[in-house]
């Protein structure tokens, strides 16, 4: 695994040991960022089920201002911290070791609003419950984007409150659903 573009381009990332994480492949990550755009002009990024933190760190390399990486696994959280230090991003990264629902509740109480959210839950869990929480807690900025990785055979719904799916791409077994926070809610 490596950073694909931006200031840390080509730098290698460590991945958590074992089978507890399923890292997003370089190919899928590259496609994801081709769709989002090559550069970001600041913004706050949230990487849920972060694993190595590759998605949030890639966004930082491409110009995002800050990133919060969330993973419940202590080994994954340590790898996220190590990768942030290795890339020189430690001052711009906060690692939260907690279950995603708990982390989202705490982030909401801090009044944070995210411009870009990545979520890559276990395929068996799927992204639906987390998308619902993100919408109900109101922590995605207006016009903010949420990208959910999931099994192509189990896509999430078209909308979750104010989050509306704008695109769906498949890459073999994995698929990416792109959501945007709209001004009004849709059924």
From TrEMBL:
Entry keywords, A to Z: Methyltransferase, Transferase
GO molecular function: methyltransferase activity; nucleic acid binding
Name recorded for this polypeptide: Ribosomal RNA small subunit methyltransferase D
GO biological process per UniProt: rRNA methylation
SUPFAM superfamilies linked: S-adenosyl-L-methionine-dependent methyltransferases (SSF53335)
PROSITE patterns, alphabetized: N6_MTASE (PS00092)
Keyword Methyltransferase carried by entry: yes
Keyword Coiled coil: no
